[in-house]
Design goal:
about 15% strand; alpha/beta; 2 domains; 15 helices; globular; five-stranded parallel β-sheet; seven-stranded mixed β-sheet; about 350 residues; Rossmann fold
Length: about 350
């Protein structure tokens, strides 16, 4: 199930070579089979432990380099993998993901096989405890105070920072927090810099994107509206020069990560580029057959990009591994139609 589908339900009722070479430095070939010890390539930064990480619900003190990491955030495993640590368990995001990770993380995962936890009905506390973790990551998560109380009794638990919303941690901060918890702050800084450099190179490669307006949306026919995103996925696109269309900010606020536009006002989506991900093929067919939708500027100019579930997952929870992969899927297609 895509992250957005689950959050909305609760709220409303191969990686670029340069980066991969950096984040996989020193990765070993050891596997994590059936919940075995995490493979931790390389070494922690000198003097990194013990370390205390202060987050929204309390502090987590990690006495030494963790060997059995459980990643409960939606892309926390990406950050850990990028820093050379292979978790013993991760959360289920998409049924189609082989070994539980997106295609952008498969090389970093290697032959490790973490247990994939279904958190649809909450965190499976007994299963997590049975894994005997020495660190639980829940940075890009919907963890509550009650969840934290249970999880922190099992192992030091690193959630999101005070003041952040659920699933609302910027990818840079996520990487920094996880890097600190793993004792790999230097590698985290390098990984963030590599992604920033990659996006800067994309901006230079596709100058036609600069200043062009865009909307990233999700149709909800049953509710008669379009969800217009304002979260991390739009921030990444802004980093390469695109500009979020004013229609998004003027639409009524839906939740912490999106606004909503009534289908009656579909014609107001006059942005130069339009990205839409769909929960079902039927939703896509219904929207694309709408005469108003067909006449939108982005659609008539060819700057409309239907986003599949894999790409939607990658962009909705961007990470140091998924961002370059997503950029390769999105930017060339948009640049081709934007002049």
């Amino acid at each position: 199930m895509n992250r957005d589908s689950r959050i909305l339900r609760r709220s409303l009722g191969a990686v670029a070579g340069g980066l991969l070479a950096l984040v996989l430095v020193g990765c070993g070939s050891g596997a994590t089979k059936g919940g075995g010890d995490a493979t931790a390539a390389g070494q922690a930064d000198p003097g990194a432990f013990p370390v205390t990480v202060e987050t929204q619900f309390g502090s987590a003190t990690i006495p030494k380099a963790p060997q059995r990491v459980v990643a409960l955030g939606w892309s926390d495993q990406d950050a850990a993998l990028a820093l050379g640590v292979k978790p013993v368990a991760i959360v289920k995001t998409e049924d189609s993901f082989k070994n539980g990770v997106g295609p952008w993380a498969e090389q970093a995962l290697g032959d490790a096989r973490p247990q994939v936890l279904d958190t649809t009905d909450g965190y499976p506390i007994e299963k997590i405890a049975a894994l005997r973790p020495d660190l639980i990551l829940a940075v890009q998560s919907g963890m509550t105070s009650a969840d934290y109380d249970k999880l922190s009794k099992i192992a030091p638990t690193v959630g999101y920072l005070k003041g952040r919303t659920t699933y609302g941690t910027p990818w840079q901060e996520q990487t920094e927090l996880i890097g600190k918890a793993l004792g790999r702050g230097k590698e985290a800084t390098q990984a963030i810099a590599a992604v920033d450099q990659s996006l800067a190179q994309d901006a230079a490669k596709y100058p036609q994107l600069k200043g062009k307006s865009f909307v990233y949306a999700y149709p909800q026919p049953s509710n008669g509206r379009m969800v217009l995103y304002t979260d991390a996925r739009t921030k990444v696109l802004e980093q390469v020069g695109l500009t979020l269309d004013p229609v998004v900010s003027s639409a009524p606020k839906l939740n912490s990560f999106s606004n909503a536009l009534s289908m009656e006002h579909l014609g107001s989506l006059t942005s130069q580029a339009l990205l839409v991900w769909y929960g079902t093929p039927e939703n896509q067919q219904q929207l694309e057959s709408n005469p108003v939708f067909k006449g939108l500027p982005a659609v008539t100019s060819g700057a409309y990009l239907p986003v599949n579930r894999t790409l939607a997952q990658a962009s909705s929870a961007p990470s140091v591994l998924s961002i370059p992969w997503s950029a390769d899927q999105i930017l060339p297609a948009l640049a081709k139609s934007l002049h």
